[in-house]
Write a structure and sequence with these properties.
28% of the residues lie in helices and 28% in strands. The chain is of the alpha+beta class and 265 residues long. The strands form two sheets. Strands 5, 6, 7, 8, 9, 10, 11, 12 and 13 form a nine-stranded mixed beta sheet that branches. Strands 4-3-1-2-14 form a five-stranded antiparallel beta sheet. A hairpin with a 5-residue loop joins strand 6 and strand 7. It starts with a strand and ends with a strand. The mean pLDDT is 97. The protein binds 3-[O-phosphonopyridoxyl]--amino-benzoic acid. 3-[O-phosphonopyridoxyl]--amino-benzoic acid binds next to helix 5 and strand 11.
């Protein structure tokens, strides 16, 4: 039934980027759906590091999954007394090799983000049908990624990425009241932007503002920071990755390898 929560985390050269933040978000997702994880946060951190060590991986994609656990065929979670914890370490590659160089294409999908008073994507739950339906539309249209709007028509997020606009040097991303996941990469991008002296804030973004932005980029654990060059066949800026996006990409590459920004295996 999608009754569980997960995290996607990356390790770069032996440093697990923002591991604490990911663990905290896992427990917040679990709290919302009243799933009591049968393991403390510190132990979850240690088990994650141990899995990487045992699998001899220093660069990895880590997937933590906590399900409601074994039960009967009914949907009552009361019949699943013991949640299951799964830790996977693997590798990942998301977009085409030239995505960072040339940017990706996207479309606004007809599939609206689930609202905050429903199966909100603020919860990183195992129910990703909302994203998958949007991704199917992108596949049919032959573009790389889909962007979901919220029920009010404001821009929300990509299927597994947060979305940012740059206009006249100001950086904006939709607030979580649109139903977007509070992204850890997005938070890092905002921090980096402010360190570089840019204004970066959360604000409702309309489709008009998205199409007319100077630059658009996605952030996410899997994609990192990737420029968007075209949305619904409208070019973004001059159709080339913009200067602020490129600067943030370069800074982010440095950040993920900084031991202070994560936990070392
Ligand atoms: N929105 C949604 C709906 C997500 O699932 C993000 C934004 C970006 O958040 P982070 O914290 O990663 O910056 C996500 C991230 C996958 C996969 O394999 C999904 C995510 C991350 C990694 C892999 O589908 N979700």
């Amino acid at each position: 039934y999608g009754d569980g929560v997960f995290e996607g985390i990356r390790a770069y050269d032996g440093v697990v980027f923002k591991l604490k933040e990911h663990i905290n978000r896992l427990y917040s997702s679990a709290h919302m759906i009243m799933l009591s994880i049968p393991m403390g946060r510190e132990e979850m951190i240690q088990k994650t590091l141990e899995t990487l060590r045992k699998n001899k991986m220093r660069d990895a994609y880590i997937r933590l999954v906590v399900t409601r656990g074994a039960g009967d065929l009914g949907l009552n979670p009361k019949n699943c007394p013991k949640p299951s914890i799964i830790i996977i370490t693997d590798t990942i590659s998301m977009h085409k090799d030239d995505a960072k160089e040339n940017g990706v294409t996207a479309m606004i999908s007809w599939v609206k983000r689930d609202p905050v008073d429903a199966t909100s994507h603020e919860i990183k739950s195992l129910n990703y049908l909302n994203s998958i339906m949007a991704k199917i539309e992108a596949n049919i249209a032959g573009v790389d990624e889909a962007i979901c709007l919220d029920k009010n028509g404001f821009v929300c997020e990509g299927v597994a990425e947060n979305v940012f606009t740059v206009k006249n040097g100001k950086i904006h991303t939709p607030p979580s009241c649109t139903g977007a996941l509070p992204g850890i990469t997005a938070e890092s991008a905002k921090t980096l932007a402010r360190q570089l002296g840019y204004e970066a804030s959360e604000k409702n973004v309309t489709p008009y503002e998205l199409f007319n932005a100077d630059e658009v980029f996605f952030t996410g654990t899997a994609v990192e920071i990737v420029p968007v060059r075209e949305i619904n066949e409208r070019s973004i800026g001059d159709g080339r990755p913009g200067p602020i996006t490129r600067r943030l990409m370069a800074e982010f590459e440095r950040m993920v390898r900084d031991p202070k920004e994560g936990i070392t295996i």
